[in-house]
Amino acid sequence: MSSAAPRVSRVISELDLPELLGPCLENPVPESFFQASRLYNALSYHRQDITSALVHFLFIQEGEIEKAMYDTGAMMRKSLVGAGLGSMVDSIWGEVPDRPDPHARLDMRYARGEIEVEVSPLAEAPEGDQLPELQRRPDQVHLAALHLHQCFDEDSLPISDMRVNAAFPSHPETPRMTLRFIHKALKSLGWLASGKGDPGRFKAAYMQAFPNLVDFTKNFLQISELSIEVEDLNEHTNKIHMSVPVDHRAAKNYNVQMAEALNLFNPFHVEICHPRTNALLLSFTIADGEVHISFGMRCGKLAWMGNEYETSVLEWDRDDFCEIHVVVECSLVPLGVTLAAIPFPAIRLQCWLDRAGAILVRCIDVEESADDTLASVALDMQAFRRLLMEQFRVELQHSCAGDDPAQSTMQFTVRALFPSSSVSTLLSQWFEEFIIRRLTATDPFKTMADLLTALGQDSFQLSQNYQ
Predict the structure, then answer these.
(1) 349-380 pLDDT, tens per residue?
(2) Where are the alpha helices (DSSP H) in 47-99?
(3) Are residues 230 and 192 in contact, defined by beta-carbon separation less than 8 angstroms?
(4) Cβ(123)–Cβ(145) under 8 Å?
(5) β-pairing, 347-354 with 280-287?
(6) Alpha-carbon gap, residue 117 to 142, rounded angstroms
(7) Is the peptide bond before 121 cis (omega within 30 degrees of 0)?
(8) What percent of the chain shows pLDDT beyond 90?
(9) Do the Cβ atoms of 144 and 168 come closer than 8 Å?
(10) What is the mean pLDDT of the chain?
(11) Is the separation of the CB atoms in 275 and 283 below 8 Å?
């Protein structure tokens, strides 16, 4: 046994979080959190411009009524010209009105504390499935998005084709540092799941180690009421369940609009499942004013909980890949709109994780449900289901050139298609109002900045305390 082994055993047995987690949180971790916080503070400062740009980007295209008016006018003009009355057209109806370009591109750049946002109309869609090109600079965050109005394959289904491409500076060691922290945090959860673990002591240790994060979460959760339970599944496997009430009063004091947004999805349920056996690894639920999370632990690692509790642990394969399935199910509650809650079908996502620093997500199933008829009042669920399974894709890729942080980037891409003509007018109007009101009044950017600042402060203090 190495000389470090007894020390590690003592750190875990005493749940000394500064000693356990501190080495994982040295710079550049705190500084990365602070840099991200500065980005979100800049987004918050410029949120009026960002909101206007997003509304223009998403809703500038002509709607069904405008399209019908333009098409009818064009048909009437063509008929008069065909009847030899072309000279009378302009005197009767005036000049041909300019129709808005059918597509749009959004560019948002952040560098040296400043935000630039621009929306450009596009007359023609790019060929194929190409993403919007980016300007790559080591000191710049650049997000580019395309909103294309097209028809999908032989059915001529009108769709909104959303393509997002973003790149931002990263540290060369980001994947390794992230995995190292997760490994150490799982050791503390392994202690909790063991016979020596104590939920009260575990809760107190984390609240003491992350005081700024605790203060932030108090704006939304009754963190003092956090409940932790450990259930024995078999000799080596345990199930940990945590639950905490939502604090609506504190949320209103922090931000009234944010408090309303907490009820936007009710319920919201996520499960992480085994790709072949469907065994459960983790479940997360927000419903009726409470947050619940449950997961399995076996020998200090996350464990799949199969039938009759035949368990195995989550591990990388020999090529350093890992596949998981994520099932998302929720109901949308449009605030202030005379619509019932809109239940969305359960969506199964296939997620490939690469230890080198990459994530690929695509949709492989959208379950049919008895609530499809209700949801179809707002959206063509059959078309929505088909487009998700055939076209939805999310990628996160870390890349670096040597050890130079200036040459390391994280690239994030999204491709999603939606049936545009089937969205109800009421829901479309609500969504437009939601963007305008939530981004300006709720200011989620400021919320993210506060969270990242708290994480930066706690990670810096932990990294100092262990030395």
Answers:
(1) 999 999 999 999 999 999 876 555 545 555 67
(2) 47-59, 64-82, 86-93
(3) yes
(4) no
(5) unpaired
(6) 10
(7) no
(8) 53
(9) no
(10) 83
(11) no
